[in-house]
Amino acid sequence: MSDDELMAALRAMWRVNDPVPDDLIERMVAVVASDDLSREYALLTLVEDATAAVRSDAETMILQFSDGRISVLLHISKAGKGARRVDGWVDATATEVVLEQGARSWTTEPGEHGRFAFTDVPPGLCRVRLTVPDEEGGRGFATPQFEA
């Protein structure tokens, strides 16, 4: 018996003795969607026109990120000497907000109403990470990278 014939016989045996459940795909999609990995693929919604603002000379850009449980709104504006200012708001009670850019990072605590800000940020790709306490000891939220 060749390898191909052997594998075909094994597939046939498993189809009879342990068939794939009809709803397996739907259940797997639900498990992956509810897993913590969903935060890594947070939905990016551009509040303003992305094609005009992301890589242009626009003075400001507004971005909104959400994973269905936590939403972050960022307002990115030009500051003096080519730097950027990143103002943000989070709708969850975050204990720490970190702006990462390559090997550099800036950390702050959000104020009342979830507001935070980072000043003198050099232009480049950034990501915001949040620490949000919950009954399980805390969880994180990270935005996809965006250009400041």
Judged by helices, strands and strand pairing, the structural class is alpha+beta
Poorly predicted runs are 36-56
Shape: elongated
Report mean pLDDT, rounded to a whole number.
81
Oligomerization category of the chains in this entry: single chain
Largest sheet, described in full?
5 strands, antiparallel
Helix-strand string: HHEHEEEEEEEEE
How much strand content do the residues show?
A: 35-45%
Radius of gyration, in angstroms, nearest whole number: 22 Å
Cα end-to-end separation: 62 Å
The total of beta strands comes to 10
User: How many helices in DSSP terms?
Assistant: 3
Helix share, percent: 10-25%
- Read across the widest sheet, the strand sequence of neighbours is 1-2-3-4-7
What does this structure look like?
The strands form 2 sheets. A 5-stranded antiparallel sheet has the order 1-2-3-4-7, with no helix packed on it. Strands 5, 6, 8, 9 and 10 form a 5-stranded antiparallel sheet that branches. It is elongated. The N and C termini lie far apart (62 Å). It has helices at residues 3-17, 24-34, 50-53, and strands at 43-46, 60-66, 71-78, 84-90, 96-101, 104-108, 115-121, 125-132, 139-142, 146-147. A hairpin with a 5-residue loop joins strand 3 (71-78) and strand 4 (84-90). The protein is α+β, with helices and mostly antiparallel strands and 148 residues long. Mean pLDDT is 81; it is low at 36-56.
